[in-house]
Amino acid sequence: MNTKAAVPGTVPPAGTAVPASTVSPLLWVPTGYFTMALAYVMLTSVTAIMFKNLGMDNGRAAEYASYLIFAYTVKPLFAPFVEMYRTKKFFVLCAQLAIGVGFGCVALAMSLPGYMAIMVGLFIVLSFVGATQDIASDGVYVTALDSRKQSLYCGIQSLSWNVGPIVASGGLVYLSGWLHTNVFGHDANTFGPEWIDSWRIVFFIVAGITLVMAVWHMRTMPDGAKAENAPTSPREALHILWDSFVTFFQKRDVWLMVGFAFLFRLSIGLLEKIGPFFMVDPVAKGGLGLSNELLGIVYGTYGLVAVLVGSLLGGLFVAKRGLKPTLFLLCCAVNIPNATFLLMAMYQPTDLVVISAGVAIEKFFYGFGSVGFMIYLMQQLAPGKYSTTHYAFGTGLMGLCMLVTGTVSGHLQQWMGYVDYFWFVMAATIPSFLVTWFAPFHHKEG
Hints:
Blueprint: H1 29-53, H2 58-67, H3 70-73, H4 75-84, H5 88-109, H6 115-144, H7 147-152, H8 154-183, H9 196-220, H10 234-248, H11 254-263, H12 266-272, H13 274-280, H14 292-321, H15 327-335, H16 339-347, H17 352-381, H18 387-416, H19 418-427, H20 429-437
């Protein structure tokens, strides 16, 4: 038997059981949240670009990718059942192994006749597995760390999650375009089955990363603990879920808060899938004609870094000024800069600096203002008997908005054209302003 004690901040020898208290959270918090984000972004965002590359029209590409948000929207409904069985680490590892194998199967399926239907079916299954990974990973974080360590590692958690979109929407989208033109010798401006070769490699890479993370977390991640008042049977889990719904709708001015949670990001939902399509569509179709490489750099790297910087500054702004006096200003920050896409659609700039600036401005202010949305859910919507579940309901409503708007956005854009569609996006900011103006504040700010 190996009697060597595990040292905090080091990887224990293979096969050694390590108590949670001896393992530094730096070994599993960053990698855990990066792996969560990688799966989520690949399924809900990068797939839209892939569908577009493979020759789908904007309507179907946005619609199919938006369906994959559904599992993440309804995950509060099956979260209590994950709490009942085995350990949270067990579910994390099972989910990551399944995601790794699943993306590998997607890559292999791209060689088969009728691959598109098989691929979409696999993506739907993977979205539910990914949502389970999120539930279990959050559970490990909350139950394995005390309140002081949760606060201490919160910034690392958030930063690590944001690395996922940069790798997926930035690096891997860039790689797909580079492989398509430089390795396989295809025309970057032609969409169709020729893109299968490069995307197959991307999915194998995602599969490999996820499987490596599963092995890493097998050695470094603590088991997590049962949450207080965790259900012990399916009947009890259903009772808790039902009681959480009842108490949620008993909250004072709940429908105003529901409207806020659903509509605050309405215009963003309409922009989310169409923004990248606008970047890669040919100039003749009203787009900017960028390659996947440039899309990965401009939209997936500069844009996401701008979101991260905006989020950090937005958090500092709210901490200094308070949420109630700044919430409407934060709503303006989220919605008004959408006009940069309208201006780019009208003038179709070719200068990469101008395009990058337009994307970075919109993304920076989106990150800055979205902080207010999350804090409002935490401080005004969530408080009560089931604060964690009610917060999940709020984020679920936001996810439902992304699902609905994403499903229709591509079809609307095809019907209206880019200029008129982006005018429509600006008109869609009005409900966001209204629900923010009337959003109730019944709890003191934390």
